[in-house]
Specification:
- The protein is α/β, with parallel strands linked by helices and 562 residues long.
- The protein folds into three domains: 159 residues, Alpha-D-Glucose-1,6-Bisphosphate, subunit A, domain 3 (Alpha-D-Glucose-1,6-Bisphosphate, Chain A, domain 3), CATH 3.40.120.10; 247 residues, 3-Layer(aba) Sandwich (Alpha-D-Glucose-1,6-Bisphosphate, Chain A, domain 3), CATH 3.40.120; 141 residues, TATA-Binding Protein (2-Layer Sandwich), CATH 3.30.310.
- Helices cover 37% and strands 20% of the residues.
- Strands 18, 19, 20, 21, 22, 23 and 24 form a seven-stranded antiparallel β-sheet that branches. Strands 1-7-6-2-5-8 form a six-stranded mixed β-sheet, with helices on both faces.
- The longest helix has 32 residues.
- The chain starts with 7 loop residues before the first strand and ends with a helix.
- One of its GO terms (molecular function) is magnesium ion binding.
- Its cofactor is Mg(2+).
- Keywords: Carbohydrate metabolism, Cytoplasm, Glucose metabolism, Isomerase, Magnesium, Metal-binding, Phosphoprotein.
- It is found in: Cytoplasm.
Length: 562
């Protein structure tokens, strides 16, 4: 188990490769020492710590226990700790960091991972997740502070400490005041007949989405009764990840049919992501992809900004962001409307830090998203936030209903105006690092050393960007502009027809992910079928590539066993 920009994430249990009391204490000791080196006023400003509802009965580990041990470590060194007294959504931690001007934040959560996992997510003083060089600095400090400090195991000591503060009530009040700044149609919200179903998938989101709806003057959504209360066993789903689509939403569909709701809002267990489904005229349910909802929210948030901006010249300081593997629909909107679009590396750690840089320069960052159903809709939180995204989506749907439009119809209108962006993404599960390495080595040495594929089926490759090695064939010096990392794999292929496909490893799960996108010109409905065909064919090619490498590796292992 290694500390990286995603912090820690592993199964709970005994041993140095698992999340347990000892590894939490060691990690926090190192983090504390690193903060002491970077902030002379650490003992004045302090840190915030939050936790979700995860628990592991056989090992005795839980998010709350780990959070209290982390708090005890800081308090033992004279550092004030703002420890939430109850479960919270992950976005509350970065919000608290910036709202209280703290040095750092910790959220104990494994988000949508399997039930046996837990994690330790770290935010810097700017309210964004840490990036290099902080990950390496913290990791080194952890190695230098392995021996538990005196009384490190006794979390009861914090209860009587004057350094312990509970921000729960304050943040519950201030957060909802801040997201109300994104509410533009309160009268419509009050009168809408549109009904919503919400599921928190056995996580923390129920209470907070209910409060968000109240803050926007929307009637509360129907809550899926079997899933609304936190349950660390996630008993009704195979994977507690709404990104998996219809398989996670079975109970939501049933409740929506029963109560006449047209839209389903689903948060992951730590409520930092959002999936949305809508009932179609045919009676079928459409689950929007992360890219599709990103297109809708980007259009909506820009439209609301434009309708409420008193100075048309202000658009020169407006920005939207998305990750490099996400749809480029925001770029298309930006080119036509006149605002700025930037792409970053995958993950909100990059978008959050870039958003903060732009905001410090006086720019307005209206929206950021990634295809993995993560959305930053409110500048008060520099991370993905499934609570604010849920209520803003509800307001958008309520507004569209007054125009007799569904979300699906509006998505089509967005594509008609800005270009028909078709994306396809999926993943392979792979627990063997050697297979993963062999796959990417083969792509980098396709027809000899340091050669990449020149085509994918009948589609010609016109450009290669390898953010593991730093190679980019489109640049004059052949060096990538985006940051590179040898610790992760990521290769992007640009095709002669304008399509883009990327294959990369996940930073938090044993997955190889792949993505493809092709855009037809605005208003050109005749071309709509071609992007679908292209995206499917490229993804099929990726699948065969992976299958062949895995089969070859299996044969090698078999031969070695004789």
């Amino acid at each position: 188990m290694e500390f990286g920009t995603a912090g820690l994430r592993a199964a709970m249990g005994a041993g140095i490769s698992h999340m347990n009391d000892l590894t939490i204490i060691q990690t926090t000791q190192g983090f504390c020492r690193y903060l002491e080196k970077n902030f002379s006023d650490l003992k004045k400003r302090g840190v915030v710590i939050g936790f979700d509802a995860r628990a592991h009965l056989s090992s005795g580990g839980s998010s709350k226990r780990f959070a209290r041990l982390a708090a005890n470590t800081f308090i033992s060194q004279g550092v004030p700790v703002y420890l939430f007294s109850d479960i919270i959504p992950t976005p509350f931690v970065p919000y608290t960091v910036t709202h209280l001007k703290l040095c750092a934040g910790i959220m104990v959560t494994a988000s949508h991972n399997p039930k046996q996992d837990n994690g330790y997510k770290v935010y810097w003083e700017n309210g964004a997740q840490i990036i290099s060089p902080h990950d390496k600095g913290i990791s080194q400090a952890i190695e230098e502070n392995q021996e538990p400090w005196p009384q490190a195991w006794d979390d009861r000591l914090i209860d009587s400490s004057p350094l312990l503060h509970d921000p729960y009530a304050m943040v519950n009040k201030e957060y909802f005041k801040d997201i109300q700044k994104q509410c533009f149609y309160r009268n419509i919200n009050k009168e809408t007949n549109l009904k919503f179903v919400h599921t928190s998938v056995h996580g923390v989101g129920h209470k907070f989405v209910q409060l968000a709806f109240k803050a926007f003057d929307l009637s509360p959504p129907f809550a899926v009764p079997e899933q609304k209360d936190p349950d660390p066993d996630f008993p009704t789903v195979k994977y507690p990840n709404p990104e998996e689509g219809k398989g996670v939403l079975t109970l939501s569909f049933a409740l929506a049919e029963k109560d006449g709701a047209r839209i389903i809002l689903a948060n992951d267990p730590d409520a930092d992501r959002l999936a949305v489904a809508e009932k179609q005229e045919s009676g079928e349910w459409k689950v929007f992809s992360g890219n599709e909802l990103g297109a809708l929210l980007g259009w909506w948030i820009f439209t609301c900004w434009k309708n409420n901006s008193r100075d048309a010249r202000a658009i020169k300081d407006v920005y939207m962001l998305s990750s490099t593997v996400s749809s480029k629909i925001l770029r298309a909107i930006a080119l036509k409307e006149g605002f700025h679009f930037e792409e970053t590396l995958t993950g909100f750690k990059w978008m959050g830090n870039r958003a903060k840089q732009l905001m410090d320069q006086g720019k307005a960052v209206l929206f950021a998203f990634e295809e993995a159903i993560g959305y930053m809709c409110c500048p008060a939180v520099l991370d993905k936030d499934g609570v604010s995204a849920a209520v803003i989506t509800a307001e958008m749907a309520s507004f569209l209903a007054t125009r007799n439009l569904s979300l699906s119809q509006q998505l089509k209108a967005v594509y008609d105006e800005y270009g028909f962006h078709i994306t396809k993404a999926s993943y392979f599960i792979c627990h063997d690092p050697k297979v993963i390495q062999q796959l990417f080595d083969n792509l980098r040495n396709f027809d000899g050393k340091n050669t990449y594929p020149k085509s994918c089926g009948r589609f010609k490759v016109s450009g290669i960007r390898d953010l593991t090695t730093g190679y980019d064939s489109s640049q004059p010096d052949q060096k990538a502009i985006l940051p590179t990392s040898k610790s992760s794999q990521m290769i992007t292929f640009t095709f002669a027809n304008g399509g883009v496909a990327t294959m990369r490893t996940s930073g938090t799960e044993p997955k190889i992910k792949y993505y493809s996108e092709l855009c037809a010109p605005p208003g050109n409905r005749y071309c709509h079928l071609q992007p679908y065909i292209w995206c499917n064919r490229v993804c099929v090619a990726f699948w065969y590539c992976f299958r062949e490498i895995r089969a070859l590796h299996g044969q090698i292992i078999l031969l070695k066993s004789f």
